Amino acid sequence: QACKLLLCVMAFILIAAQVLFQKHVGLLQAGKTTFASPPYQYTVHALDAETGMPQWHFDLPPYDWYSAAGDEEGFITREWNGMRGAVLPLASSYPTLDSQGIYYQGYLDGTLFGIKDWNNDGIIDRSDEVCRFDMGAAASSGGPSIVPGMLAAVSTDG
Q: What are phi and psi of 108, to 5 degrees?
């Protein structure tokens, strides 16, 4: 019986937190649930520094949710600690280039991307010219940092 009561209380807390989160990001208005605009589309373009001519482009996966990765998961903790309930970060971090010309950028879905047109054909091959790392939460706006032998990136989850 105590187990059932505990599960009911936990379910209530989770539902209440979801409703509070949706109110916090403006999704509940006058009793109606509204969702964000169509999926977020994001494309990275590489241009020649001297001519401005396109070298390659890469379409990041569409992001079809109203909050960034990690915003919902950390909502209760942030509220409990008196912090702003939702992070609501930018769609991506600032980009960083390394000495080999690899482009690094964090994205709204919690992925850190490394992109480079290794064969210089102007087409990014998703299988061997794109590296992905799941950070577990959206990227913070500051871009990745590079020091010898290390790449560091910060997510909105810290």
A: -55, -30
CA distances from 18 to 23, 38, 74, 105, 112 (A): 9, 21, 11, 29, 27
For residue 107, the one-letter residue type is Y
Q: How far apart, in Å, are the Cα atoms of 63 and each of 46, 69, 92?
A: 21, 10, 11
Backbone angles phi, psi at 77, to 5 degrees: -60, -45
Q: How far apart are CA 112 and CA 102, in angstroms?
A: 12
Q: What are phi and psi of 111, to 5 degrees?
A: -100, 135
User: What number of helices (H) and strands (E) belong to the chain?
Assistant: 2, 10
Residue 107 DSSP label: B
Q: What is the DSSP string of 73-106?
A: TTHHHHHHTTS-S-----SBPPPEE-TT--EEEE
Tell me the C-alpha distance between 144 and 41, whole Å: 22
Is residue 30 scored above 60 in pLDDT? Answer: no
The pLDDT tens digits of the residues spanning 60-91 come to 998 877 778 887 777 777 777 887 777 777 78
